[in-house]
Amino acid sequence: MPNNLAEMFAHLEDAAFERLLARLSLLHQYYRLREQTGASTRKALETLAQQFNNGEAPVDTRVYAVYDKVSGRTMRRWAERLEEGGLIGLSDDYGKRSERTYASYFDPGSPLRKVAMHHLADHPDCTATEMLSVLREQMPKAELPDLRTVQRFLTKMRD
Predict the structure, then answer these.
(1) Do 111 and 75 belong together in one domain?
(2) N or C: which end of the chain has fewer CB within 10 A?
(3) Residues 70 and 116 in one domain
(4) pTM of the shown model
């Protein structure tokens, strides 16, 4: 992760920059709404989310090109990230602990995916902890995902 804003902006792709600007625009309207109405955080977030989802939020039309819908909970997470990390906190990569993605562990054709899919076929109700244990046993030298990544994989496979 870059150390300053100039480095961060230089490395952002156009779409990532647009998402950052859209998040900032929505948060700006959230803070204005709270200040103008004295509404609670929850109420202001819900109100703005509803306005946005109805196409009535006072934001630039480019924000609607980036996001179809937004929830109050998502905006609350963005506000927390902005408070914690400044503008860098609104970037897509903020807070990621690893360069690896969920998909990189379980790409179609990957050895981990093959082992996981075979186990899932034999044990459709297995837990993420059980799956991770099987992966550790059958792939002792492989770099393994964390428990949460295995949970996401199982959720996706069961949907």
Answers:
(1) no
(2) C
(3) no
(4) 0.58
Pairwise CA distance, residues 58 & 41, whole Å: 18
Domain C-terminal end among 38, 60, 90: 90
Residues 49, 69: Cα–Cα separation, whole Å: 8
C-beta atoms surrounding 27 within 10 Å: 20
CB 107 within 8 A of CB 88: no
CA dist 84 and 95 (Å) reads 10
The pLDDT of residue 102 is: 60
Dihedral angle of Cα 8, 10, 13, 15, to the nearest 10 degrees: 70
Which pLDDT belongs to residue 6? 65
Question: At 148, is the secondary structure helix, strand, or coil?
Answer: helix
pLDDT < 70: residue spans in the chain: 1-12, 93-103
Q: For residue 87, what pLDDT is reported?
A: 82
Which residues, including other chains, have CB under 8 Å from residue 34's CB and lie 6 or more apart?
Answer: 41, 44
- Indicate the SS3 state at residue 63: helix
Could you write out the three-class secondary structure of 27-56? HHHHHHHHHHHCCCHHHHHHHHHHHHHCCC
Residue 96 inside a domain? The answer is no
Of the three residues 65, 90, 115, the one that is the final residue of a domain is 90
Radius of gyration of the chain (CA): 20
